[in-house]
Design goal:
By secondary structure, the chain is α/β, with parallel strands linked by helices. Helix content is about 30%, strand content about 20%. The protein is built from twelve helices and 13 strands. Strands 1, 2, 3, 4, 5, 6, 7, 8, 9, 10, 11, 12 and 13 form a 13-stranded mixed β-sheet that branches. The longest helix has 20 residues.
């Protein structure tokens, strides 16, 4: 059945009034209520809302375009690094998709980045001891190359604060520096949340390249607060540059040769000051080998040859967020945002981070538009760019639309891969929880489990949260996301169609319910956003 209407076959049926299945359901519910007493307006409205939920849930499973869209994004367009031609193609393609689904006011909203970046080949090999080992490495985003092939000693730097840097003074000239001991890598079957998406994640595993104390049975590894860790990283990088270190190496921190990736233009766009240092991620197994070799007692020596080739693209470079709308029927100047990030890292296809979220947002738009729904508020669909470098696209949106923020009820974001959506994280907003518990009862039948006050950082909902707008990220079954995230394994074959369809059901019903609430969601904030 096409959810836009139920069409009887044959000419004899023309002119008849054919009720839709949701309309029949609404009539049934009202009739049931009337068995005890005459239905009130609130009873009728509740029945109508439940019928609309069912219409959305059923039609989302019919003729889904999620996998076709995800395949095009992954296989045809491919990885979508911010500032790249591929990301621009993805912006244009998603805009055309939104138009084909009947969305209004479809456009590309521009913002700029100061400098672009292209990855080149990277090579490293151990030459002392001469064990023939070629190392699996990948340059950190927005870091320069080495200006040719170098031979350098390897030094393991284990400092955890500025005071502990002093013993390395005078010992790092032209050295390759290992950033701390090997990470503690969980077994591949361990259930763990990801360190997903852009810089500054407040969730998940140890950040790549961060020293982690070895775990014991009684004492799990701990790390300093993020702000403290970030401040020390800046001090450490300044120290390494002053000492003349050649390259910094970081543990990818994933099992079985998987890589990771992050980076930002923050240090690469300086009009003056030192050039950023070449930095690479090393697969965990090779990093652990290097660390063992580099920490042998003197006079043992570890030496490698290394060459990194990257290219900066002078800016400013214009990039875009893709935007489309279903206009509100009663309050068109009030908004519910449904979003995901379109950009990705470049080691693979960017399927689960975040082609899956992009495809779910497109499918949510397609279903709501095709069903002919008329939300009271405008539902605005936004595919952000620049998320992976620090939520820059959503922050640009918030700045560009700052006059609309007081009239924006919430931002709903899908950004943790292909797994089933099990709940919404409400970022500690206790006043919102009872409202949504009453509104989202229909989602229980598709596996939606909870509305949690827990929060999560590091995705585009945080740009809204920080501006005072309720920003909620889906909580998902993580499946293999901890592995595919930012790695060369982030490929189309990891996508799970049934779970993505369920994600579209959750996004569509939630968006419609919020758009039809009598008022905007309350803005009461917890004393501090939970991490």
């Amino acid at each position: 059945m096409h959810c836009s209407r139920f069409r009887p076959a044959g000419p004899a049926a023309r002119g008849r009034l054919w009720p839709t299945v949701p309309a029949l359901l609404a009539a049934f519910v009202i009739a049931a209520l009337a068995g005890a007493q005459a239905p009130t307006p609130s009873d009728a409205a509740r029945a109508e809302a439940l019928a609309l939920d069912q219409k959305i849930l059923v039609s989302t499973k019919e003729g889904s375009e999620i996998m076709a869209n995800l395949a095009y994004l992954s296989d045809i367009i491919g990885p979508r690094l911010t500032g790249s031609a591929a990301l621009k193609r993805a912006n244009e393609w998603t805009a055309e998709k939104m138009k084909s689904y009947g969305l209004a006011n479809v456009r590309l909203e521009p913002w700029t980045i100061p400098v672009g970046w292209e990855r080149g080949p990277a090579y490293a090999r151990i030459i002392e001891p001469d064990n023939g080992r070629t190392l699996h490495i990948a340059a950190m985003g927005w870091t320069p190359g080495t200006k040719g092939r170098l031979e350098a000693d390897v030094v393991a730097l284990t400092a955890r604060n500025a005071n502990e840097l002093a013993p390395y003074k005078g010992k790092l000239k032209n050295a390759v520096v290992l950033r701390g001991p090997p990470a503690v890598v969980r077994p591949i079957t361990a259930a763990a949340p990801p360190a997903a998406g852009g810089e500054g994640r407040a969730r998940g595993d140890s950040r790549p390249g961060e020293a982690a104390k070895p775990a014991t049975d009684s004492q799990p590894p701990r790390r300093p607060p993020f702000e403290q860790s970030l401040a020390f990283r800046r001090e450490m990088m300044d120290f390494l540059r002053q000492e003349g270190a050649a390259v910094m190496m970081m543990d990818a921190g994933k099992p079985h040769g998987l890589m990771t990736m992050t980076g930002s233009w923050r240090g690469a766009d300086r009009a003056s000051g030192p050039e950023p240092m070449p930095a690479v991620f090393v697969c965990h197994e090779h990093y652990a080998l290097l660390y063992r070799l580099a920490t042998r007692p003197a006079p043992a020596r570890t030496r490698i040859e290394i060459e990194i080739n990257n290219r900066f693209i002078p800016g400013p470079i214009t990039v875009y967020n893709t935007v489309g709308e279903i206009p509100g029927s009663e309050k068109p100047d009030e908004f519910v945002i449904v979003g995901a990030h379109l950009d990705s890292w470049d080691l693979a296809q960017g399927t689960t981070d975040n082609g899956t979220g992009t495809s779910v947002v497109l499918e949510t738009a397609r279903i709501l538009a095709r069903c002919g729904v008329r939300p009271k508020r405008t539902i605005r669909f936004v595919l952000f760019s620049g998320e992976e470098q620090g939520l820059h696209g959503s922050r640009a949106y918030v700045q560009q639309h700052k006059d609309e923020l007081p009239r924006t009820s919430a931002a709903l974001i899908h950004d943790t891969g292909t797994g089933r959506v099990i709940g919404w994280g409400l970022q500690g907003r206790a006043a919102v929880k009872p409202l949504l518990e009453a509104e989202l009862v229909s989602l229980k039948e598709v596996g939606f489990q909870e509305l949690s006050l827990r929060g999560m950082g590091g995705s585009d909902h945080m740009a809204f949260e920080q501006a005072g707008v309720p920003g909620f990220a889906v909580q998902q079954d993580m499946t293999e996301y901890r592995l595919t995230h930012h790695s060369q394994s982030d490929t189309f074959d990891k996508a799970r169609e049934a779970d993505l369809i369920q994600g579209a059901q959750v996004m569509a019903v939630t968006a419609m319910r919020l758009a039809n609430l009598p008022t905007l969601l309350p803005r009461d904030r917890p004393p501090r956003n939970p991490e």
